[in-house]
Amino acid sequence: MTSTPIASKIIAKATRVSIDPAHIEYTSDRQRNAVEALINEFTVHPQMLQDIKANFMEGMKKGLKKDGETMAMVTSYVMGRLDGSEVGSYLALDVGGTNLRVVAVHLTGGGEITTRQTKYRIDEKLKVGEAKALFDFMAVCVDSFLDEHQIVVRGDTQFELGFTFSFPVLQTSINRGTLISWTKGFNASGMVGKDPVAYLQDAFNRRHIPVRVAALVNDTVGTLLAHAYNHPDTCMGVILGTGCNGAYVEKIENIAKWKGDATAKEMIINMEFGAFDKERAILPLTMFDNKMDRKSVNPNKQILEKMIAGMYLGEITRNVLLNLIDRRLLFEGCISPDLNQMWTFETAYMSTIEADGSATLHATRKILESTLNFSSTTMNDRQIVKLIVELVGKRAARLSAAAIAGVLEHTGSWKEKAAIGIDGSLFEYYPSFDTDIMDGLEEVFGPTVRQNVSIGLAQDGSGVGAALCALLAAKHSG
Ligand code: ADP
Ligand code: MG
Hints:
Elements: E1 2-3, H1 29-42, H2 46-65, E2 74-75, E3 87-95, E4 99-109, E5 112-121, H3 124-127, H4 131-148, E6 159-165, E7 169-173, E8 176-179, H5 196-206, E9 211-217, H6 219-230, E10 234-240, E11 244-251, E12 266-270, H7 287-295, H8 303-308, H9 310-326, H10 337-340, H11 347-355, H12 362-371, H13 379-411, E13 418-423, H14 425-429, H15 433-445, H16 448-452, E14 453-457, H17 461-477
Parallel strand pairs: 3-6, 6-9, 10-13, 13-14
Antiparallel strand pairs: 1-5, 2-12, 3-4, 4-5, 7-8, 10-11, 11-12
Helix pairs in contact: 1-13, 2-13, 4-5, 6-17, 7-9, 9-11, 9-13, 13-15
The structure holds adenosine-5'-diphosphate and magnesium ion.
């Protein structure tokens, strides 16, 4: 049994060791010009950050007015607030993109939470196969989790489960909704327009697994709730993992499209902000982004997500490297067969390369030569690879800052004490992602924002948050 305090932690991760382009010994003027052109293309200048933020706020307003807008601004049906005194035991099933997690959450009150969890890998075939098979797999994971941890129910009672299903869903109640579209490499057949809760509940029932799906939760909403359990001033939950998205607390009077309970004062909105700028009106897309987008399972969709999230950053970097190689400006034009394959340059490699401060760029060399099988690399190759990684990573963090700034300005939360909980491996492990975001926020709001707004890792937020949501659902119906 592990005890998982959700409190924002000091993130013990490496910081970026920047590379100064002026210190690169270029092999030719052509190489220097190519690198300078990349710096130009990938840099999000302060004015651009402001413009994106302004455009993002317009997108938020549109989505609050009516359904079907680029940013869906989904009403989550989560209206209650938490104060940390809640007690009980709940299950959570977290389907985020890369892994599937089952979590047993025990709330002991006083902001204390203990969890037991098991991760399961989702096979690529399941992601794009029959929807029924995918949901059967989820039910089987929950069943084996209960077995493994010897968790049993007494009599006819059922476990209440919070289902974190982190795809765009048009929610119709706390445990009902319809899938708007698949994202993050999923494309299981026959699901769009259907209710994922019904599919999951059906899979449980067919196997006589005593579980009731009490709440359908987006991971952003879960993250917000989990962070709020011990940071009551939490105003936003953000995911920076396989995909990216955010949720925030909105006043009911600002949600023009809301036709439900008029007595509620506020509601958590799942923004689905990864879809921002489908129109390609404002984001500084490069040919490397476009190449990746075309080859993705959802071309032309989730444009902001594809510039920010963990699933895509490595692939964008790979595209830039290939372009330089093909122009004989890197690795003397020699390619490694590994790098020729799509998705082989993992975003996790970028974290290692960003943190590499060794004189010979030893860690970078290891990735290129041992992992990606380049026969040899020069210092110049490694410096340029490092610089490109930094360009792609920093752009992602600054675009995240633009989105977060849009929310903070829309709600006015930057003027008061406010906490933002962020979950996801990209945020957790990528060097200096947090400081890049803060720097971006300071550019927009000035130094006050540093005193007022805290950004913290809400580790396991999406799992624990789902359990908290199941609890809120029970509170409401009880
Ligand atoms: P999910 O989004 O499925 O809940 P995670 O939050 O673990 O899962 O995010 C997985 C994503 O994080 C993957 O796309 C992966 O590329 C990225 N990732 C994993 N490890 C690292 C790392 N060390 N540095 C940067 N990104 C990482
Ligand atoms: Mg997750």
